[in-house]
Structures are given as C-alpha cells and as structure tokens.
C-alpha cells in the first residue's frame, strides 16, 4: 500500500470528524469529506483539507440510508480509483430516560450510529478485499463500554459497534484489512456543548487526566490506527478518554 492513501470520513463537517479529516490530510492522504446537513461547514472542512496539498472531495450522504452509503463509496471510487481508509464517525444522540424513550429516538440513533457504520463497512469491504489492504476505524464511545443513564439508545448503538468491529476484524483479516474502534470519552464538540458547569465538574471527577479531550486527541489516535505503523493491530477498542475507563 502506498503511503498516500484515500480516506473516507463520515460526518466530517464538524467536530471530531473534521479534525480526523484534517489530521489524515496532514498525514498526506486524500480525503472524502462526508456530511449530511451542514453544507457550509463541510465546505470549510474540504478547504482545510485541500490547503494541505492533498485532494479533497465533499459528498453529501445520509449514511443510515443503504443507497446513499453505497453512492458515497461509488463516487469516491470513481474519483480516486480506490479506498484505503474508512472512518465511521457520523453519529447523533437523542437522549431520554428509558421509560419515556420514543421509538423514533431509538431508531434514529441506532440507524445512524450502527446501521450507518454497517452499510459503509459492507460497501468498502469489496474494493478493499480486491486490493488486499485497508484500514477501518469505527468511532464508538466510552458510553458503549460502561453505559450511561439517559442514553440506552446511544449506549446500545455504540456497544453494537464494538461487536461489529470485532466480527468484521476476524472476517477481513485474511485480506490484510484491519478493523479497530476508538472509544472517545468526553470531547469538546457540539455534541457535548449543552452540558452545564455543574455536570461538567461532576464528570471531571471521573477523568484522571482532569480535562475534557479535544477532537485532535481523537484524530491523532485515528491517524495511528489507519497508518502502516498499526498493521499488526486489529479488532481492538482504544479508549481516548483521559483515563476514564481503565
Ligand atoms: P457532532 O459535532 O455532533 O458532529 C456529528 C457529525 O456527524 C456531523 O458532521 C454530522 O453531519 C454527521 N452526521 C450525523 N448524522 C449523519 C448521517 N446520517 N449521515 C452522515 N453524517 C451524519 O459530533 P462529534 O462530537 O464530533 O461526534 C463524532 C463521533 O464521535 C460520533 O460518532 C459520536 O458519537 C462520537 N463520540 C463523541 C464524543 C464526544 O464527547 N463528543 C464522545 C464519544 C464518542 P452534519 O452536521 O452535516 O449533519
């Protein structure tokens, strides 16, 4: 596999996904920037990627829709001729207590966070198997490892991603494709912006490194797992959480 690779990052318009796209570009890779609703933000990510001297392509697609996930990968293949790296990062939350959780809140979270990752993985598996190489990184969460009150949907989806990661890792290993997961802890993005000062103080008590993580903290770990230096690592879940889960 050449060092200059082609990467698809889902949900790259904002937050962790944007940082991953930039970090992969810094590592010299071409990047497909996927987004759903934030067109201007996605264009900004693409500009930041292109600024680094690699090729960037913006593609709008809802990864929870099978046909749109398929089109996303097909378009990337048409444009670049190969896909070496897939980062399943797109994710949403619809928090609520179990007793009151609406069907839609359950379905939306499972569909985007778990079904979307499956569709993307299935779609890239064929070209990667043909190439006999590939790196896939799924962004799960510490919540998928330890649960969280008010997030049964999110925790189930993220725990599901861990199973998906390990099963796919075993299935694809004979073709030199690695599949790993990263479990971020509490990272400063729009997703966690609503948390009040009190809740934040309480949370920091459980983080040995005593700070929130940055999207760059997560992106650095993703770049490593997608690199040649991680070719003997597969089926693993790496927590990037300041020591929250150990
Ligand atoms: P964010 O700032 O809310 O960004 C979410 C991204 O996902 C956006 O780019 C959004 O695109 C995209 N997206 C949502 N639904 C999509 C769909 N159906 N198809 C394609 N893209 C979609 O979230 P974040 O905090 O960066 O989180 C990124 C990932 O890390 C998620 O999987 C999240 O669960 C995980 N994570 C985050 C934290 C944290 O503390 N922030 C902790 C653990 C895990 P548009 O804006 O274009 O709609």
Automatic annotation (TrEMBL):
Keywords: Fatty acid biosynthesis, Fatty acid metabolism, Lipid biosynthesis, Lipid metabolism, NADP, Oxidoreductase. Pathway: Lipid metabolism; fatty acid biosynthesis. InterPro entries: 3oxo_ACP_reduc (IPR011284), KR_dom (IPR057326), NAD(P)-bd_dom_sf (IPR036291), Sc_DH/Rdtase_CS (IPR020904), SDR (IPR050259), SDR_fam (IPR002347). It comes from the Bacteria. Its EC number is 1.1.1.100. NADP(+) binds at residues 11-14, 89, 154-158, 187. It catalyses: a (3R)-hydroxyacyl-[ACP] + NADP(+) = a 3-oxoacyl-[ACP] + NADPH + H(+). Coiled coil: none annotated. The active site is at 154 (proton acceptor). It is an enzyme of class 1 (oxidoreductase). Residues 5-185 form the Ketoreductase domain. It holds the Pfam family adh_short_C2. GO terms for molecular function: 3-oxoacyl-[acyl-carrier-protein] reductase (NADPH) activity; NAD binding. One of its GO terms (biological process) is fatty acid biosynthetic process. Homotetramer. Belongs to the short-chain dehydrogenases/reductases (SDR) family. Catalyzes the NADPH-dependent reduction of beta-ketoacyl-ACP substrates to beta-hydroxyacyl-ACP products, the first reductive step in the elongation cycle of fatty acid biosynthesis. This is 3-oxoacyl-[acyl-carrier-protein] reductase. It comes from Alicyclobacillus sacchari.
